[in-house]
Amino acid sequence: MPSTRFPIRSLVALSIMSALAGCASEPTFGERLVAEGQSRAEMGAQAVQAEKDIERGRRLIEEGRSQERDARAKLDEGQRLVDRGNDRLNEIRNAVSQRR
C-alpha cells in the first residue's frame, strides 16, 4: 500500500503558505500609487524646505559679509581718529613742553 504521509505533509505545508499569503496580500496598484505619491510628496516637501534653507543661508551670508564690510570700515575710521588724536596730543605736549 502506498504511503500517504508525504502528500499529506505537502498539502499541509501548501495550506499554511496559502493562508499566510492571503493575510499578507500585496498592495493593489492604486495603493502602491498612493504610497508612492505620499513618499514623493514628503520628499518634495523636504526638497522645498531644503531650498528655503539654502536661500536663507545665502541671504545670511551676504548680510554677514555686508556687516563685516561696514564693521571693517568703522574700525578703519576709528583707528584713523585715534591715530589723528594721538598725533595732535603729541603736538600739543611738545608745544607745552617747549614753552617751559
Automatic annotation (TrEMBL):
* Chain intervals for the UniProt region annotation (Disordered): 58-100
The organism is Fulvimarina manganoxydans
- Superkingdom to which the source organism belongs: Bacteria
Q: For this UniProt record, give its keywords in alphabetical order, as a comma-separated list.
A: Signal
**Where is there biased composition of kind Basic and acidic residues?**
58-91
Under which name does UniProt file this protein?
Lipoprotein
Q: Where is the signal peptide?
A: 1-21
